[in-house]
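Onboarding guide, step 5: your first structure request.
Type a short instruction followed by the sequence, for example:

Predict the 3D structure of this protein.
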Amino acid sequence: MKKLLNCKGLSLIEVIISAMILTILLAGLFAVYKNSRDVVAMGFHKSMAVFWAQARLEEIRAGCLTQNLPSAITISKNATRPETVTNLGAMQLVTVNVNWTE
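The system replies with structure tokens like these:
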């Protein structure tokens, strides 16, 4: 019984180090969450750009539009980290520049 009453608690150093470790872990989780959100947004905008470009190509092939579209899709968020997609469905190469801001 005497041993149970003599239990030592956490020291101030242990509490500070634990709080720092927890802060670092939470910051890392937030960075992963933010990056994954950007990846999902990039994928969404890429899909929308590809669908738009394919629709324009179909209109050109059907004779509804007379203009020719150039050769790749470039997608970027806030004009950073551009990503290029080429050969859309092996129909023809198109260029669509997509840029969005949040």
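Each response can be followed by summary notes, for example: Residues 11-100 form one domain.
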